[in-house]
Amino acid sequence: MYTNHSPLKFPKNFLWGGATAANQVEGAWNVDGKGMTIEDCLPYREVGVADLTKQFAFSSKDLEEALNAGPEANYPKRRGIDFYHYYKEDIKMFAEMGYKVFRMSICWSRIFTDPEDEQPNEAGIAFYLDMFKECKKYGIEPLVTLSHYDVPLALVQKYRGWYGREAVELFVKYARVCFERFGSYVKYWLTFNEVDAMLRHPVTSGGLIEDQFNDVPFEQAMYQAMHHQMIASAKAVQIGHELCPDSLIGCMMTKLCFYPFTCKPEDNLATQQRMRTLYRYVDIQVFGEYPIYLKKEISNKGYTVHFEEGDAEELKKGTVDFVSFSYYMTSCWAASTEGLEMSPGNTVNGVKNPYLPSSEWGWQTDASGLRYSLVELYDRYRKPLFIVENGLGAKDKVSEDGKVHDPYREEYLKEHVCAMSDAINEDGVDLMGYTWWGCIDLVSESTRQLSKRYGFIYVDEDDYGNGTFKRIKKDSFNYYKQVIESNGENID
Ligand code: BG6
Fold it and tell me: Pick the catalytic residue: 39, 134, 141, 194?
């Protein structure tokens, strides 16, 4: 249980809010000129909460099945929570909670039905424009992710996703349209969500389907695809700065955190090595070049990453203004994990920490780890930080009184607010804001369950798409409202 060490205090302009991603909320997968994305092809699988390998497995056969699936098939991302039609109602509720910022993502395939189209899809542009206007009406700043996992299917089919160098210029074209058309409404931007994720789940992050890579080792293909995202991000940052000089453009990483399981030197070393893999690509986005340990990692495996002429300069010129990250849990690591109990986490497994509680999905919640992470990131990057995802997935129930009582969510939030406050006031971390992940229930990324609920707002829908989509404010809705109203000072 984390309690604050010094009085709770947040900067006056601290950006409190909530976060979502297009592919997990919008639904409306085939309307108004939207092209398909890889996310529309991910089926619901009854494989248990901890089995990440099976959840993320995806073959050309799965793709084929998805393309031929009838309306009875369960592809949860296709329906999301129908935010596409409910966004006005939902943003109104975010405003009622007092949000200063709303993190959302633009679906590339709404802006370009096919990334190779010459002209953007005006219906898609109109949708986001209206959403931004709606936010502005309530004084909410949009925080926009340009790419949150929904790789356009056409890119997968034509170029094997981000493995194809073509993806870079196509993304740049899309980013340019976003800056041009939305720049007057949007100040805060992120290029790629969890930019380190491709090496853990290459299908959703990069559109790379393993069985399509017989000509090149799959891991090498992933490093190459990562390189393309690095170049695309660096170019997008430059265009954004040029077209929208007041904008702030950040990177976004999965802030995992591993503690050594014991104080044995070899466990410490193994943990340090594992922790460093988290920073490989953020180091590039912040410092503008590949860190030496990443170069070694690639060459020691016998791989090469192909740089086109000018790539190194692009990386140098396209560094980010701030570092944002997701944070949910921690776990431990050891030189040998044989015989040790493991625990699942955000797309990783770690050694189970005997001192931490676990969520219903086995994630070990740990507010101290948030402070630890803030300190670590600020010491490393010396850039303003932004927590753009943090939250608790739980099995909420509508009680007989028609309400949703979720004290566990309030408890989680409270502890993390304390940890942030201490990081700011005791450790001197420059923290721009905090957006709670899944501020309204949404489709889980890893399990595709709606029943893994994060929201302050309940959505009447189950894992199979049954329900009315009606929204219900949970108890935590008023709790977060109180936290924001008091600028983080009233958490009781
Ligand atoms: C982050 C992703 O990794 O974790 C989100 O950016 C995701 O898209 C979130 O939803 C929580 O993970 P999950 O698997 O519980 O949805």
Answer: 194
